[in-house]
Amino acid sequence: MNKHIMLFHFFLITVFLLAACQFNEGKTTATADEKWTKKAPIQHIAQSQNGVLLNMKKKRYMMSEKEIKITILNESKFELTHGEPFAIEKNINGIWYSVPFKTNAFETGSFSLHPSESFVQNVYLDPYLENDLPPGKYRLVKFFGELLDSKSGTKKNKLILAVPFKVVN
């Protein structure tokens, strides 16, 4: 009888140890995707709207790259205002998720873009991202202020545009 009890305890301890080891393994191998659980507030964002286009010549970036160059083209009849703020979102199984930033301390400067003008902005990821972006489909989301028609004084709503890109090994 004692032999059976000892064998049962040995078996029970072995099961607990194996379960504990697997639990710890899961914690240390969590992927970046598992950290990104906050769905993007807007799932469908256009790349162009009201005559304003957000573009990027380069559509593929290496994991180690820390700079993305975007072009804003204002083909509307409105003056466009924008600043530095942007967001990065990752597409996981058809759903966009916000990539967490370690800081949201964007510079507060504002730029004006007149009709028929374009502006090239270098977006530096290094001060904001916690880690390199793992391979996958992403989009850069850019926020714009009101569109102002300087001739008539009319305003249009604020604008949000996004441009897709891929990160590869």
TrEMBL record:
User: Is Signal tagged as a keyword?
Assistant: yes
Membrane spanning stretches: none
| Pfam families, per the entry | Big_14
Is this entry keyworded Signal? yes
Keyword set, alphabetical order:
Signal
Instruction: Extract the signal peptide range.
Output: 1-19
Q: Which residues form the Bacterial Ig-like domain?
A: 49-146
Q: What is this protein called?
A: Bacterial Ig-like domain-containing protein
Q: What is the lineage of its organism?
A: Bacteria, Bacillati, Bacillota, Bacilli, Bacillales
